[in-house]
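Reviewers of the previous submission asked for a worked example of the structure-prediction workflow described in the proposal, so we include one complete record here. The input consisted solely of the amino acid sequence. No template or homolog information was supplied to the procedure at any stage.
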Amino acid sequence: MKTKTSIITLSLSKVFLLMVVFCLLFSCNSKPESQEMNANPKEITAKELLGNPDYQAICYGGYRKNTRDIEPTIAQIKEDLKILAALNIKFLRTYNVHYKEVSNLLEAISQLKKEDSKFVMYVMLGAWIDCKNAWTELEPIHNEESERNAIEIAEAVRLTNAYPEIIKIIAVGNEAMVNWATSYYVTPNIILKWVNHLQELKKQNKLAKDVWITSSDDFASWGGGDVSYHTKDLEDLIKAVDYVSMHTYPYHNTHYNPDFWQSSSNENHFDELQKVATAMVRAQLFAKKQFENVKAYVHSISPNKPIHIGETGWASSSDGFYGIEGSKASDEYKQALYYQSMRAWTNKEKITCFYFEAFDEPWKDSNNPNGSENHFGIFTVDGKAKFTLWNSVDDKVFTNLKRDGKSIEKTFSGNKDLVMKTVFAPPTKR
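From that input alone, the workflow returned the following structure tokens.
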């Protein structure tokens, strides 16, 4: 996230053309695509899932409270799954197997499949990886690993073997190699060790051969940024994984690398919404550039290696760096523009995009309810559909669906004028 990026410039004609595209995307009907893929589903592999726009992907966490001590029940998760399935989402990403949430999720999917033979949902299972002394008062040792990593990997293998019809990918670590993850990051050789271990289990028939193995990490970790990441271990890791899962976050870079985001003097005659639209065009181009940078480096090592997006998103609220006193990036309108544009681009290019995330999770920044980390969901924690999904509510996509007893309704009581009062143009370059 926190990397230097060149300023992206556009001609005014191109900007306005892309603004029109945004308008078309946002005004288009967002009801689910044809449900034909749900009819008589056959067993499918990761190779067939990745890059297939019929299987929309999203990052999922079902926590309702500001602590992970209160885990979502199977019944609650089943509610969430039905809501996501109504949006044609059929592919979920998880992050660790520390808690019962993931085993509950897998059981919930299994139950829904038994209850309805047409129900489809697959999982990219995350196995969390830490360095030695991570999250302790001791100094992290980044070239040594936590003893718990072995436990995490073993449980990921157990779950994958227990639910072969659901789990199609294992991701070793989440943003586990990027240097700004100072509390826990590891050197690439540690990720490589576990990727090779899982690949060996496949050879030994202790793990299904068609389960794909990856690591999901920041674009810089995959060689798309600073050359300091270009190491022999990373080259070996690129060769070892079945595909590369990269993250891109223009949202965070509105603060850390704001040149692309801030309005220029050429936009002085634009009104506020025109400035917003052009900034969001630049945001998507920022994400595309990071993807292309990763692709260039990865394919210089392994020319045919598939690359997909393991995480990207846009928070709808912030009282910090990204709020009204900061980059002014956070609101539901900008979130909607980013979501729609990223879906359109990745679907067209057959890039699987695990959008971050389905529902707001208040535990992410438990001491600050208004913190941006709590507001990346396209649904609020109480099940309200954010502006991104208002068309879906209008189309009655969520009829008879509830979250914790509450019907799916629009945020802001469905008043667009109230939404727009929260929208501010980016700061102007000085």
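The chain has a mean pLDDT of 92. We consider this example representative of the routine output the project will generate in years two and three.
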